[in-house]
Amino acid sequence: MRNNMDQVDKFMQKILLLIATLVLAASGIAQVKVAPLNIKERTLPNGLKVVSLQDNSSPTVAIHVLYNVGGKNDPQGKSGFAHMFEHMMFKSTKNMPNEKMDRLTEDVGGFNNASTWDDFTNYYEVVPSNYLETLLWAEAERMANLNVDDKNFASERDVVKEEYRQSVLARPYGQFSEYIGSLTYTKHPYKRGVIGNLDQLNAATSADARAFHSLFYRPDNAYLIVVGDFDQKQFDAWTDKYFGKVAKPSSAIPRVTEVEPAKTKEARFEKTAPNVPFPAVAITYLGPRSDSADLPALQVADKILSGGESSRLYQSLVYKQQIAQEASFTIDNKVDGGVLYFEAIASEGKTAPELEKSLLAELKLIQDKGVTATELEKAKNQLIADAVRRRENNDGKAIVIERAIAYQHDPNAVNYDIQRLQAVTAADVLRVMKKYFKENNRTVIYYTNDGGAK
Known about the structure:
With about 450 residues, this protein is an alpha+beta fold. It has 16 helices and 11 strands. It has a 6-stranded mixed beta sheet with strand order 1-2-6-3-5-4, with helices on both faces. It has a 5-stranded mixed beta sheet with strand order 7-11-8-10-9, sandwiched between helices.
């Protein structure tokens, strides 16, 4: 029954997206107006920032807790530590046994999960709204009373090590994704990635974990984001009751101060691995900070370059030239400055130099001739439709608020992002493509088969 319902939900999402796209196209993007989210904000005496959005249209509630700690905050020489700690947060606390969060959510028809990013770690649950108080208690409990003991630490470190083996070492092109970050950055901790590596995970100890929890998992380093079916006055009272008693540590929160230096010349790398069926190429560029006013124009360029099979890269490299089986452009958004990169995997018999030449030709084309009015309108319609679709349910609203906090440092950024997209012009796209995609800001990575070398 659950699988059938999932299929129905996915079908309805496609229908809603199609309707939204058609409405946007028919009405003209300049006239699209999205009702603002009525977001409430307050800060508890212990420093916890509380962001809430009451929406009683369905009897569910989404609870997100965002901690301002991510892969870039890993202790020196212990890459993957923040990711490992994400797993630790599902273990026992003073008043909850191991895996209790699953029982509090899945057993009442909801779900929970977490993820670690370069800049933050988030924990989230969606449950029937009559379980809101229970989940607020549980999130406060693991913030204040997590058991970071040797047994829990060892088991979760092994889980993360196995995740690294499966998703990076065993998967074709798994290491390729890691190289895009590690070879583009030269000094910033972003170069270490998030998932970690085996040697540095082995070097971590449970004492390190306890110190990490006390430094970063604290109310003055967190946001509580709740969206859904609740009474505001009751929610505020529960928040004060459970989170208000979590003590604020006296120690300072360590922050990353390293600044990635601007590149002065092109860098080139050749990497190999045994599980690379076809050559791959990445061409990367240092991008703007996550709160940059240039991002909407870059997002429009992203859609034009690689937004589906009608995009420029697919049509040129995959469909017409047939030199690539995959070709894409990606904005890897990060608080301290992200990465903008082209990526392609060759078709049979094609080479990495051929891929590089074609990718750079497409870049030169957009820099020389810009984009057409039709391309611009289509890309903006797609982006706005995506934004509307993300707000269809309580968890979707919580996610966009969470991302606004993480990347734009303002939950209310969700209420002007669509307008910023609508304001993008063809001249804006041309400007950012010339601004960031310069030869002296370029890193080129070839990734090929090592021929069975050990």
